[in-house]
Amino acid sequence: MSVTQLPRPRKLETVGNQVLEHIRDAILSGRLIAGTRIDQNALAAELGVSIIPVRESLRQLEAEGLIEKRPYRGAFVAAPSMTELMDIYVTREALEELATRLAVALMTSETLDSLQGLIHEMESATAASDRVALFDLNATFHFTLYTASKNAILCQLIESLWDRSTVYRRRFTFMPERAAQALAEHQEILAACRRGDAEAAGRAVRKNVAQTTKAIADDHDRPSPETSE
Fold it and tell me: Which residues in 93-180 belong to E strands, given as ranges?
């Protein structure tokens, strides 16, 4: 289950919400890639709706950072700049550490059991090199933990940042050499939660997020094959 598949606040199922979720899912799943121009008329015809809910949805997605409007050219799927992407991850580190510290103080045996079950699934997926499953399990693990904080605003902020970096998380989080390390980091997080050590759990989550931040920076600084000797 990816972050975009996790339960969002319940909404009235209007045509506008259906259109919004359709476009958002197309972006976050990679069906609409960064830089793609959104043909509003074609999209409205495809969905069998008027142009109005499409325009309203694009305004909402622009506010979320998933769409960018270009003067005289229309709406395009946004591609975060490297500066913006690094800002997202640095902010994630701080917010997710805070959510974890709050969650540990309210941790229940049911949540601990859920996290342990997800660790077992991660172990199997890591052994099978199932990157798709690992991507989904990672999101489920983290949001199971953060939801335990009982802080809906904080979880919504974190979810928004995850949405804005989904494409990049798919690329960097589960590189072949990264999977075993990521599993060990999640085991460390759970161990600290079981001890009731909020400080250690928070540090472990920050470390886990920071590894992706580092991978993005390293990849950006790596010479391309065309320029390297």
Answer: none
Pairwise CA distance, residues 164 & 79, whole Å: 9
Pick the closest to residue 66 from 101, 100, 36 (CA basis): 36
By residue count, the chain amounts to 229
pLDDT, one tens digit per residue, over 144-169 is 999 999 999 999 999 999 988 776 66
pLDDT digits (tens, 9 = 90+) for 50-66: 999 999 999 988 887 78
Q: Can you tell me the distance from the alpha carbon of 31 to that of 48, in angstroms, rounded to the nearest whole number?
A: 19
Which residues neighbour 222 within 8 Å (Cβ) at sequence distance 6 or greater?
A: none
Long-range contacts of 116-119 (CB under 8 A, 24+ apart): 116/190, 118/144, 118/186, 119/183, 119/186, 119/187, 119/190
Mention every residue, 6+ apart, whose C-beta is less than 8 A from residue 178: 172, 211, 215
- Rounded CA-CA distance 34/65 in Å is 12
Reduced to 3 states, what is the DSSP secondary structure of residue 195?
helix
Q: Each residue of 85-109: b (16+ CB within 10 Å) or e?
A: beebbeebbebbbbbbbbbbeebee
Q: Is 42 exposed, middle or buried (0-12, 13-18, 19+ CB in 10 A)?
A: exposed
Q: Are 160 and 4 in contact (CB under 8 A)?
A: no
Identify the segments of the chain with pLDDT beneath 50.
Answer: 1-12, 224-229
